[in-house]
Amino acid sequence: MQVKHLEITENMTINEFIKQLDESGVLGAGRIAHATNLLADSIKDPDTQVFLSLAGPMIPGGLRKIVRDLVANKQVDLIISSGANLTHDLVEAFGGNHYKSTGEDDEVLQDSGMGRIADIYTHADDFEVFEEEIQKIFADINQEYKQLSIQEFIYEIGLRIDDDESFIKMAAENNIPIFAPGIIDCMIGLQLWIYTQDHDFILSAAGDMTYLSDCVFKSKHVTACMLGGGLPKHYTLASNILTGGIDAGIQITLDRSEGGSLSGAPLEEAKSWAKAKKGSNLVTVIGDATVLFPLIVAGALDKIKI
Length: 306
What we know:
Blueprint lengths: L13 H11 L2 H18 L3 E7 L4 H14 L5 E4 L1 H11 L5 E2 L5 H6 L2 E4 L2 E4 H21 L2 E3 H10 L7 H7 L4 E2 L7 H10 L5 E3 L3 H11 L2 E7 L2 H10 L6 E8 L22 E11 L2 H17 L1
């Protein structure tokens, strides 16, 4: 079959563009179309649960509202996130911002109270507000609870946020669980450690496993949508070993496979561990998730409307 070359036409819709990628069927274009169609089918199917994992700087990188809207519209059913993405959601919930790079030297940035994530800046003043506000939330939670699982803890934080653009708040309001197995490795974890130096409060990582396993067992089918790799990707896949693996998966990554890391591993490798079922529908899209995921979501939602 011949490659059908792309044609950009005036006033074409996002769905028409994705259809052309699908008809071309080659290289990155074909993978983007595959991921778009798979996400659309998964969102539409009432028997399929969509597990979204967030690694890397997805929230400071511009995806905060997209994730928030997917949660608010109940188009994802469960989130597994790095602690950093939760932290950056809260930074904005407390009035802070993320800023575009101006190309300053990193030592100059340090002197001016700025931190850098690639070409994204954060300001120390915003983190000072974060520290003050999160300590207040810890204290309020601690009035009711002496011990919580990580998922329960994030849920309680979400109930206490006054920002409708926060995906943590939207998840709490819509009863969509957020798991963050690496939450100690972020500013939330550091502030929690500081809080627990003179307060009686325990955060249980093992406490999440019963609820997460229940979510897996109750799901007829699971589609995992994984942005980046690392711990969130592994936690997403490993949790589904309990039922023989995910039924479908979308991975968007810039990592390579040669080093043997999970972040760069092709999804097909997950079949050998029963983290993905035999015959599962899997697609790995190589590229920047902050660019590709909005395109895939836009195409999927446009397809659903038709």
